Amino acid sequence: MSELHEKSVAFQQARLKSERLRILLVLEAVGAIFIVATIRTIILHSPEDLHKWLRTFLLIALFVGFESLMLRAVNRAIQIGGDLKNATWIGTISVESCLPALAVAFLWSASIEPAYRPLANPAVLVFFLSVILSTLRLNPMYCRVSGLVAAVSYLAAGAYLGWKPSFGGGAPLLSPQHVVFSYAITLVVAGFTAGAVASEIRKQK
């Protein structure tokens, strides 16, 4: 797609409206996750679950606040016929891609062995949801950045939990040392795949 088309008002408005849809879908998904977590906490009540629920509430509250600000900025840009700055797009992608890593790092159960905490956490799936929805930004580069930031932040969360990579031949392929790194590679691949999808979507605009 030409740079002229990239900067056209029609395309910018289409991208902003697509971004607004993406934000609403993210908020709905996060809301559904929180409702499920709340119901689970009520049914399977324990001190650990209550503390985890409180941490989840704080993290989601921060996330919803950030997304609400972004939604407001997108709506304002649509109204005035403008666009968001490139730094704003990249900053938003980076923040959103790092938030699931915070959940991996801080929302774990003491009943799970430390080596498996980066793996046995539903928050890992949120990385993939974030990368999939990045296609709605209609920019292949943004999708790739989403996958790369998700991979790096996931590895950082794993390192915080005590994960250490193993490049030798001593550990089995399905050991946590190897699987965590494999998840990170998968996130990068997902980002580039989402970029290819976004490229095809742009051709229809």
Structural class: mainly alpha
- Secondary-structure element series: HHHHHHH
| Sheet having the most strands | none
Q: Any idea what the shape is?
A: globular
Number of strands: 0
Compute the separation of the termini in Å. Answer: 10 Å
Oligomer: single chain
Stretches with pLDDT under 50, minimum 5 residues: none
Helix proportion range: over 70%
In DSSP terms, counting alpha (H) and pi (I) runs of 4 or more, how many helices? 7
Average predicted confidence as pLDDT: 87
Measured by DSSP, the beta-strand proportion falls in: under 5%
Tell me the radius of gyration: 19 Å
Q: Can you offer a commentary on this structure?
A:
The protein is an all-alpha fold and 205 residues long. It is 75% helix and 0% strand. The protein has helices at residues 3-6, 9-43, 47-80, 86-106, 123-133, 140-160, 176-202. The radius of gyration is 19 Å and the shape is globular. The model has no long low-confidence stretch (mean pLDDT 87).
Structure, briefly:
The protein is mainly α and 205 residues long. 75% of the residues lie in helices and 0% in strands.
Task: List the topology elements.
Layout: H1 3-6, H2 9-43, H3 47-80, H4 86-106, H5 123-133, H6 140-160, H7 176-202
Give a quick set of tags describing it.
205 residues; mainly alpha; globular; 0% strand; 75% helix
